[in-house]
Amino acid sequence: MASMDTSGGDSGHKKGPGVKKAKKLSTRVDMTPMVDLGFLLITFFIFTTTMSTPNTTRLIMPKDEKDPEKQTEVKQSGALTILMAKDNNLYYYEGQMEGDGSNFKSSTYKEIRDVIQKKKKDVMLLGRGLGYNADSTDKDFVVVIKPNSDATYKNTVDILDEMTINNVQRFALIDITDTEMEAIKLTEQKGGGK
Amino acid sequence: MPSVKIPRKSTDTDMTPFVDVAFLILSFFMLATKFKPPEPLTITTPTSVSSAKLKEQDAILIQFDSAGKVYLTVNLLKKEDNALKLDFIQRVNNEAKLGLTESELQKFVNFSTIGSPLSELKAIFARPANEWEKINQKGIPVDTANNELQRWLGASSQTFQGKKMDIMIKGDNNAKYPSFKGVIEALRANDIFKYKLITDPKGVPPGTDLYQLRQAGKGIQSES
Fold it and tell me: Which residue in A41, A54, A153 is closest to B180 by CB distance?
């Protein structure tokens, strides 16, 4: 510990008789309480510090186009529709939904990435066949996101994030239709809502 | 046989370096700590891979908590802009005929957060501003039948014309989609199509397209 050399110095002086030698006191200070306090403060500041500043995700929504002439047409071959339901359930179908619901599948937030990637690859292959430019073979790929009223905000952001992760250029956030609601309900009743 | 004497060593260890480091860390944390400003509602934001940092700037912050209550906050960095805040609330006051007095309007300039239906604002504004946080406010209605946020945003885009205002949306993980949709609808009705969602950072999963883009030094969102 921080100690000063107290020996020596006055050792050369001879004290006269009767002069009592002062008892040498240690200059060592017990630092334990100070250290205790120091660490207490450290822990306090560690816990109160907000290290990670929140991030922002940019979201650009399309203009509400009433005119059907100007509405974006989506190729059926390149469309992937993701439906979000309650309890983190997820459903999807490719292209248009079949009347018998044969292409209506359920998924989870973990598995949906593979679904998106696979679909994207398929569309890119198709685009190459159609002779699109090499850097825009995925231009027909559109993900349609339809959260129903039981989906949470986290679900929505997760899926939007999935778009960023998989570099999906075109996606749309659209209201769910009644037929789709019906399909979800039916799947849930069947116990397939895993 | 001569016994080997083991020199008795002091059990005291020199704690000086230890203490030095401890206080160094302490001073680091003391300087680095930025205390969170008190927030009217607790929100746990979802995570995203976005890399754009949240900047402190003039913004209109729309928040909704897990119950779906929507709050609107006007954040202006400069004190001089407080006149704009007054102008903003004055505009709403006139349009919706709330009948608020001058001193009541002044309370908004200090508090800057609105979280009640227009019909209840008079009662809220009658109380001192420091009590507002304790009041269990109902949130701004955003349902399709009565989307009052639309009016607020309409007034804000008129007031803050020519000023660079960002629209930030901060939602709770467990908020249901309709409240988010209501917010989007209100923004869309005011021809606002670009906004930012406040999220917590998360790592990019390896092997994905974005991961490869980031590795190549691309795909990083610009700040603005």
Answer: A153
Q: Given 3-state DSSP classes, what are the helix, strand and coil percentages for chain B, each rounded to the nearest 5?
A: 40, 15, 45
| C-alpha dihedral, B47 to B51 to B57 to B62, nearest 10° | -30
- Rg of the Cα atoms in chain A: 35
pLDDT score for A8: 46
| Closest in B19, B49, B175 to A165, CB measured | B49
Predicted confidence at residue A167, as pLDDT, reads: 81
Mean predicted lDDT score pLDDT of chain A: 75
**CATH at residue A117:** 3.30.420
* Chain A from 119 to 178: CB within 8 A of any B CB: 120, 147-158, 160-161, 164-167, 173, 175
pTM as predicted? 0.71
Give the residues across from A59 on adjacent strands.
B195
CB–CB of B158/B91 below 8 Å? yes
Query: Total structural domains in chain A?
Result: 1
User: pLDDT at residue A79 above 80?
Assistant: yes
Q: Which domain holds residue A87?
A: 76-189
Q: Is residue A152 part of a domain?
A: yes
Cβ of A153 within 8 Å of Cβ of B174? The answer is yes
| Residue written as token pair 């994030």 | A161
Q: How many CB atoms lie within 10 A of CB A117?
A: 18
B99 phi and psi, to 5 degrees? 70, 40
What pLDDT does residue A7 have?
47
Collect all residues of chain B within an 8 Å Cβ-Cβ radius of residue A31.
Answer: 15, 19
H or E, element range at A111:
none
